[in-house]
Amino acid sequence: MAVIATYNSKGGVGKTTFAINLAWEAVQNGYRTLLWELDEQGDSSWMMVNGHQIAPTNAVNFSMGIANVRQQIRLSKFPKLSLLAGDANIRATENFLVSFAKQQRLSKLFSELEEEFDLIILDCPPGFSEANRRIMQFAHLVIVPVVPSPLAMRGFYKIRDYMRLKRGHHPPMLPVFSMVDRRRKMHKLAMEEHPNWPVVSIASDIERMTDKKLPIGAFASKSKSGGAFRELWRGVEHKLLKMLVLRKIVASKQMENA
């Protein structure tokens, strides 16, 4: 089972948008996926459930054992996509993660979840808290949405330097340009400096996600934004398969071709 995190120390860069769309793309390719919302804003759960608002997770109960984590997982509006909603008390969630990591129980938790899921996507809150640092040390891949501006790039370099310190010269991270406006000189210069980084441009389709309460691929799969996230998922999938933490799911594709 693979664990990926969408993270940036800065807010408003598209972390939740990335988490939701990557989770949706994953299930379209047959992967049993858990979207774990670690942000107290609750945007992922608000968008991904039908009808009434999903009850927030009570992170305090996590301390009582791994079973309590599993009991709070809920189905989303899409088959094979489950959700662990955020706790409005973000401090409780952070304390839980740090405590489990210190007790070597975090690995056990993810090992048990492997029975039910092929992939876990962590929608991380902004900030450089100890909980986020623990996640960066544990996740198989950290996806970092970066707005192409000097301050945002500075934030990315901080994350990169920390991960190099903790996980070696080539840390498992994938920077992605987010909210790109190709008309802006600053954005164009940043993309020229990093031509190999994936790009997700600013678009009305992304803004419409909150109105539709759907991932882009569910209502505008042929749009440029839909194509961008589909291509991003292919790159993420390739990395995880190459790392041998994800097994290729072929059954669903075989059914589609039958």
User: What structural class is derived from the secondary structure elements?
Assistant: alpha/beta
- Overall, the morphology is globular
Q: Identify the strand order in the major beta sheet.
A: 3-4-2-5-1-6-7-8
- The share of residues in extended strands comes to 5-15%
Rg from alpha-carbon coordinates: 18 Å
Count of DSSP helices?
12
Q: What is the distance, rounded to the nearest whole angstrom, between the alpha carbons of the first and last residues?
A: 27 Å
N-to-C series of helices and strands? EHEHHEEHHEHEHEHEHHHH
What does the model show?
With 258 residues, this protein is an alpha/beta fold. The protein is built from twelve helices and eight strands. The chain has helices at residues 15-28, 43-48, 66-71, 90-102, 106-113, 130-138, 150-167, 185-193, 204-212, 216-219, 224-242, 251-257, and strands at 2-6, 33-37, 74-75, 81-84, 119-123, 141-146, 173-180, 199-201. It has an eight-stranded mixed sheet with strand order 3-4-2-5-1-6-7-8, with helices on both faces. β6 (141-146), α7 and β7 form a beta-alpha-beta unit. α1 crosses α11 (224-242) and α4 crosses α6. The radius of gyration is 18 Å and the shape is globular.
